[in-house]
Amino acid sequence: MTKKTVAFLLPALLTGAAFAQTKTEFTAYDQKVPGSEISFKMVPIKAGEFMIGSPASEKNRSADEGPRKKVAVEAFWMGATEVTFEAYDFYADPDKETNLPDGMTRPSPPYIDLTLGMGKAGGFPANSMSQYGALMYCKWLYKKTGVFYRLPTEAEWEYACRAGSTTAYPYGEDTSKLSQYAWFAGNSESKYHKVGELKPNAWGLYDMLGNVAEWTLDQYDADYLAKMDAKSPWNKPTAKNPRTIKGGHYADPAGRLRSAARLKSDMDWNRRDPQIPRSYWWNADSPFIGFRLVRPVKQPSAEEVEKFFEEIVDQYKGSR
Amino acid sequence: MQNEKNEKFHEGRRDFMKQGTLLAGGMLAAPILSHANYFSGAADVIKVALIGCGGRGSGAAVQALRTKQNVQLVAMADAFRDRLDDAYKNIKEGVEGNESRVNVPESNKFVGFDGYKQAIALADVVILTTPPGFRPIHFEEAIKQGKHVFMEKPVATDPAGIARVLATAEQAKAKKLNVVVGLQRRYQNSYRELFKRVQDGAIGDILSMQVYWNQGALWVKPRKPEYTEMEYQMRNWYYFNWLCGDHIVEQHIHNIDVGNWFKGALPVSAVGMGGRSWRNGKEYGEIFDHHYVEYRYADGVVMNSQCRHWKDSTSRVDEELVGTKGRVMCDRAVILDHKGNTIYKFDKKNENNPYQTEHDELFEAIAKGEYKFEDAKRGAETTLSAIIGRMATYSGQTIPWEKALESNINLQPAKYAFDAPPPIIPGADGLYSYAKPGTLKYFS
User: Fold this and answer.
1) How many domains does chain A fold into?
2) CA distances from B268 to B86, B193, B208, B265, B401 (A)
3) Distances from the Cα of B116 to the Cα of B86, B142, B290, B441, angstroms
4) d(CA A36, CA A46)
5) ∠B143-B144-B145 over CA atoms, to 5°?
């Protein structure tokens, strides 16, 4: 791809004017997983501006959380919860999804059960997938529904998590309240929990902090905030890794669950995969990672979607 | 010329191996190589042959090539050309910057059932990673040719294979050839630390053991019209006992091995139950999808072993050993007292990658001319422990370990060829017959 096309494609995917599917009302809705009894809730996140990052004075802050910067984000729907095991497994399991769209592949069965006994049925989050595995789910959903779902950009994720707040946590500064909103080292008993059991943030999003940490669409760069565009920023991947992960997880201390905290994906999370080629789909050692979907209100055209899948998903097969 | 030097190095090693004498502690009397010029020229090359070019074989080859020693992959063998070619490509990518260590000319790529012999001849160290049914004959050939060995578990699928591996293990010992078996928990920091503490009495005497490999479904390879029955079974090998041994042997062996290791003993008998709850289709060959086995040791201690491939069910891959003073939870890497207090917790930050460590330790020993690893015997003993579990669930009978070994039961085909019949053939409906407990009897 030429640089020119990329420049055109970027805004189109994030803020494009073309519509693949029009949903007239900007309200919450349930998306059925086609062919199954499973559905997941999407909630509207209005366009707006916010300060991304954390002030130098914030406790437990890392250097990569600054400098703070005002950025504008377009409107999108976001999953009220992390993608559940049932919803993901419906795509992954050939006995459930018997109608795989042409040209699609599905996750190979992992060599060991990567839920590690923490729970599956009944609304536990899907976990341990590579970023590629998360993006392929988006591609599958698009092929099945015609709706373009993707991972949130880092900026979209933090905007939605903060829900208008400027404090360390969406509800304020007080870590003693964290247990009401998030599963983390202080209350999780070293495992993830069913999604949506704790309090949501002001915009109706559950488990943004803690439980499983969430893949974003951005390549990780420690200095990204200094370079970030002011409008619809996206650090478009230029390699298979690393990627930015947000939200902290069930084994993290409170300080790692702040809205501004960023996690860099680590190749070591798959070092115990004994096979070559290493699984494109799974990390052997990151049971604390999952993902959540977004749907941009301004849907890209079919051509733009195909380009996105070519450039971001197929080109970096096995991104993690 | 490099080859000439390699040849000399090789000759020198062989002569040395013949004359080498063991010091106390299992070390050879003198190093093969002069350390002064180690890593300084082609003479220090350790040549590796890969026998069995699947995902695990490719992984093992890359791990060997990532060790500190000057290791080169010089030969590859597989039953299938496509598998070999994929592996060659994947290994080249997998060594990330060490492509020069992959040195396998076309003439050193061997396809078919018999290629292993030629590949073994070209190497100092052999990696055996075919389906386990072939392990006994490949291991025998490697030791016969005087090579060090890394071989994956299990080391056989039937008692006859075990007998063969035990006999070969004696040969390996006599020739002082290092043999590492891929029961990698033995090379994993957390397990080594837990083992040390259990040895030192942290949980007192072991009273009972629970071992688990409960997970979802595995891969299935579809049949293609051009396949002979033999080729189909070779490609979809997991579901045929002569090749795989059933998942209790192929996978759950890891956990059974931990029981044997920590107990410092082998079970004397096994009794249990198992079957095919959901895996009934023709694509699933003849193996069960669950086994529950009660292993009994000479002192009366019982190890309860469970393994299953059930989707959407509670999963657990773990070992839990209960003693007079406390218990070990291996996966969590903790030791607890009987009130639930933590006596010891391994810091998982110190966990290693055991798959890499196996090779690091093996190749270091080989480079130093040390004889340190004789895993084959215990690998065979623990494989037979898993096999008597399968025999118990298949037959419904109590299976004594010794009696199973003496039975010499052999699941292998009379002839290894793509046009030869495998030992089990599907019925007219495409389904394979499988064991019926109470009907199947191993001993009169």
Assistant:
1) 1
2) 43, 27, 15, 9, 5
3) 18, 9, 34, 35
4) 30
5) 85
Distance CA A56, CA A114 (A): 38
Q: Report the share of chain B in percent with pLDDT over 90.
A: 85
pLDDT at residue A271, as a whole number: 82
For chain B, what are the domain ranges? 2-185+355-374, 191-351+383-407
CA nearest neighbour of B422 among B214, B155, B131, B173: B131
Q: Report helix, strand or coil for A63.
A: helix
Contact predicate A203/A43, CB 8 Å: yes
A317: closest CA of chain B, how far (Å): 14
What are the residues whose beta carbons fall under 8 Å from the beta carbon of B385, sequence distance 6 or more? B253, B256, B257, B260, B266, B267, B270, B295, B401
Inter-chain residue contact A113 with B215, CB threshold 8 Å: yes
Could you tell me where the beta strands, DSSP code E, fall in B276-427? 290-296, 302-309, 316-323, 326-329, 334-337, 342-345, 399-400
Does residue A320 form part of some domain?
no
Length of chain B: 444
Provide the pLDDT confidence category of residue A154 given band limits of 50, 70 and 90: very high
Chain A residues near residue B60 by CB distance under 8 angstroms = 274
**A70 part of a folded domain:** yes
CATH number at residue A159: 3.90.1580.10
Starting from the edge strand earliest in sequence, which strands make up the sheet with B334-337, in order? B342-345, B334-337, B326-329, B316-323, B206-215, B302-309, B290-296, B269-275, B399-400
- Helical (H) or strand (E) element with B6: helix B2-19
Question: Structural domain of residue A30, as residue ranges?
Answer: 3-314
pLDDT digits (tens, 9 = 90+) for B12-47: 333 333 333 333 333 433 334 333 333 334 568 999
Q: Confirm whether pTM is higher than 0.90.
A: no
Look at B315 and A115 and tell me if their CB atoms are within 8 Å.
Answer: yes
Q: Could you give the maximum distance between any two Cα atoms of chain B, in Å?
A: 68
**Cα–Cα distance for residue pair A67/A125, rounded to 1 Å:** 33
Distance CA B231, CA B237 (A): 9
Nearest by CB to residue A271, choosing from B312, B331, B353, is B353
CB-CB neighbors (< 8 A) of B355 in chain A: 272, 274
Q: Is the pLDDT of residue B86 over 50?
A: yes
Whether B2-185+355-374 and B191-351+383-407 share one fold: the answer is: no
Q: Which residues neighbour A38 within 8 Å (Cβ) at sequence distance 6 or greater?
A: A32, A84, A86, A87, A90
Q: Is residue A62 part of a domain?
A: yes
Average pLDDT of the segment spanning A260-267: 96
pLDDT in tens, B174-201: 999 999 999 999 999 999 999 999 999 9
Q: Which residue in chain A is spatially nearest to B219 when comparing CA positions?
A: A109
Report residue B161: phi and psi, to 5°: -65, -40
DSSP letter (8 states) at residue A202 = T
Where do we find the tokens 């064991």? B435
Nearest-CB residue to B55 (from A109, A112, A276): A276
A219: its two tokens: 């390549």
Instruction: Report the alpha-carbon distance of residue B41 to residue B34 in Å, rounded.
Output: 12
Q: Which residues of B touch A277 (CB under 8 A)?
A: 55, 58, 90, 93-94
| B205 CA: distance to closest CA in chain A (Å) | 28
Q: Across the A/B interface, how many CB contacts are shorter than 8 Å?
A: 61
Question: Which runs of consecutive H residues, i.e. helices, occur in A195-252?
Answer: 224-227
Residues of B with CB under 8 A from a CB of A: 55-56, 58-62, 87, 90-91, 93-94, 184, 214-219, 311-318, 331, 353-356
Fold for domain B191-351+383-407? Dihydrodipicolinate Reductase; domain 2 (3.30.360)
CA distances from B427 to B82, B87, B282, B410, B415 (A): 29, 34, 10, 22, 21
Nearest CA to CA, how far is B214 from chain A (Å)?
8
Fold (CATH) for B2-185+355-374: Rossmann fold (3.40.50)
